[in-house]
Specification:
About 25% of the residues lie in helices and about 20% in strands.
């Protein structure tokens, strides 16, 4: 079977939703959104999906469409109640990251000195609440040393080292899962630092290390699994017929 790098990324991200149970999927980006829909249609049927607004869908429309364009709405919640869902932990997130350090501290706020940043980003947004209330995974479509840095400029999402140092409420429900990139999948080792879980087909461990701004363990790295024929059909024909996935991960 022929498949693209984007489709490998989708199934790797889809696997991050396994065993999530009946929780609200918070997916930021095309690949995470496709992955959550794929998970719902295959191994995680209890996953709760939104059309991007406040409708929960039992039969979501294709990516890029809303409830008005089709699909089956099974529930609705006002926006204010999303924060109640978050605070009770009935949610799982796959967020983006402008910077990530070895312990999973995430920055989406600004680059440079926060008093006079060289680049203003979107702010910390919901990252602190996500990382202290439920499992949080990350998606990085362009793996580079500019993203994987020794020290983030601003901590938006709480990393393992900071949660452990703070203790109490900061650590109780802190749960970082995986980081999926266009080159590899990372998880966290016994020292709470990022390690290479798998490299995508056609990618070498050295390529991943070269694109990472700190030393990273690859002693247990394998190759990322490839999509099944049924997964490819669902991705291409049902979930993302417009191939939005290839805009995030070309080739």
């Amino acid at each position: 079977m022929e498949f693209t790098r984007a489709e490998v990324c989708v199934v790797a991200a889809s696997d991050s939703w396994r065993d999530a149970g009946e929780v609200l999927a918070h997916a930021v980006g095309a690949v995470p959104a496709i992955s959550a829909r794929l998970a719902r249609l295959t191994h995680s049927p209890d996953l709760v999906l939104s059309d991007g607004e406040a409708f929960f869908m039992s039969d979501p429309p294709p990516l890029g469409k809303t409830a008005a364009d089709g699909g089956t709405v099974e529930a609705w919640t006002p926006y204010r109640e999303v924060f109640d869902i978050l605070q009770t932990g009935r949610r799982r997130s796959m967020m983006g990251a402008s910077q990530l350090d070895r312990y999973g501290n995430q920055n989406i706020s600004c680059i440079g000195d926060w008093q006079r940043p060289t680049r203003q980003l979107i702010g910390v947004r919901g990252a602190p609440g996500n990382t202290v209330n439920h499992r949080t995974n990350y998606w990085v479509p362009k793996h580079s040393p500019r993203v994987f840095v020794e020290r983030v400029d601003v901590v938006s999402g709480v990393g393992n080292d900071r949660a452990r140092a703070a203790g109490g409420a900061a650590e109780r429900f802190h749960d970082l899962g995986v980081v999926v990139t266009d080159l590899a999948v990372f998880d966290y080792g016994p020292d709470c630092a990022l390690r290479i879980r798998s490299v995508h087909p056609g990618v070498t461990v050295e390529e991943v290390r070269h694109g990472t701004g700190f030393a990273v363990d690859a002693s247990t790295a394998t190759e990322t699994r490839v999509p099944t024929a049924e997964e490819l059909r669902l991705i291409r024909e049902v979930i993302d017929p417009s191939a939005l996935r290839s805009r995030e991960v070309p080739g």
